[in-house]
Amino acid sequence: MSRRARFLEVLGIADEWVLRRAPALPEAVEPSAMAGLADPSAEVTAVHEDAASREAAQAAVTLAAVADARVNEAQAEAAPSAWSAQADMDAAAPAPAPAPAEVAVARMPPEPVAADTSTREAVIARLDWAALEQRVCGCTDCQLCDGRTQTVFGVGDRQAEWMLVGEAPGENEDKQGEPFVGQAGKLLDNMLAAVGLARGRNVFIANVLKCRPPGNRNPEPEEVAQCEPYLRRQIALIQPKLIVVLGRFAAQSLLRTTTPIGKLRGTVHSYEGIPVVVTYHPAYLLRTLSDKARAWEDLCLAREVHARAGAKA
Ligand code: SF4
């Protein structure tokens, strides 16, 4: 047995092949592990070096394994943290990506009608006569614009102390653009004359609706709501001493009530501080002659109220 072989036997390495170029020896590995060997020669030194290299390699592998394990542990520890951080980010993140525009729009509350109406009313409430008449003439704010021939703005003295308010234009009014024409208009003129008034002299005549409802049907509440600001502005511009309301519909619309006209008659009501007297519509009186006497009573009441208001007429 060669000296080399003996050394290998002593070392328990036998003829096992050992990598001579092992990784750098870590500090933890003690080269002096071979210190107990006697008479070390160059070969022994070589073997020693081989053994040291082997151990160093093993140690390096061990250290590498430890390092890998620690890296793995670190990664294993880091992984939940990273997940938690992501979870936190998810939790803290703003709402999921914005919903498609159509969904967002669908969830949006509808534009408050009151706000729109208020804005529109505020605009109308600032109009002067010319602007108001022009706006009514071109108005398309409700469906009644579809069937009208023309709007019926109103007629008369714009500084009048008497104001007469009817329901809506009929067929003749729609054609002529003036309220209370035809047989009902003639009757109204006679009624006015009975109390010393005349169309166009100290009296202004208008309707709640400025467009004719098709087939002379009753106006819808939405149509009244859209058109009433025009009447309100007319009243504000005229500032009459008295308003005489002609017919059930006009009375209930202006006074915001459902009380029958029979119970509204004979009492002085108020519209924004202006006294209001209710009587029958001339068209009704043409069909119900027996109620003409009641209409006369109403006109007498109106004249009395007007007189009490200190009017000149
Ligand atoms: S009825 Fe009045 S609100 Fe409707 S379109 Fe005619 S003017 Fe405009």
Walk me through this protein's architecture.
The protein has 313 residues and is α/β, with parallel strands linked by helices. The chain has 2 domains: 3-79, no CATH class; 114-308, Uracil-DNA Glycosylase, subunit E (3-Layer(aba) Sandwich), CATH 3.40.470. The chain has 12 helices and 6 strands. Strands 1-3-2-4-6-5 form a 6-stranded mixed beta sheet, with helices on both faces. A hairpin with a 2-residue loop joins strand 5 and strand 6. Iron/sulfur cluster binds next to helix 8.
At a glance:
By secondary structure, the protein is α/β, with parallel strands linked by helices. It has helices at residues 3-11, 42-92, 101-107, 113-124, 129-137, 171-176, 182-194, 221-238, 248-255, 261-264, 282-287, 292-308, and strands at residues 155-156, 162-166, 203-207, 242-246, 269-271, 274-279.
The CATH architecture of the largest domain can be named as 3-Layer(aba) Sandwich
Cα-atom radius of gyration: 52 Å
CATH topology of the largest domain: Uracil-DNA Glycosylase, subunit E
Order of helices and strands: HHHHHEEHHEHEHHEEHH
The strands making up the biggest β-sheet line up spatially as: 1-3-2-4-6-5
Number of helices: 12
Q: Which range does the strand content fall in?
A: 5-15%
Mean pLDDT: 75
Biggest sheet record: 6 strands, mixed
The rounded distance between the terminal residues' Cα atoms is 152 Å
CATH C-level label of the largest domain? Alpha Beta
Q: Can you count the beta strands?
A: 6
Low-confidence parts? 15-113
Any ligands, ions or cofactors bound here, and which? iron/sulfur cluster
Shape: elongated
Number of domains: 2
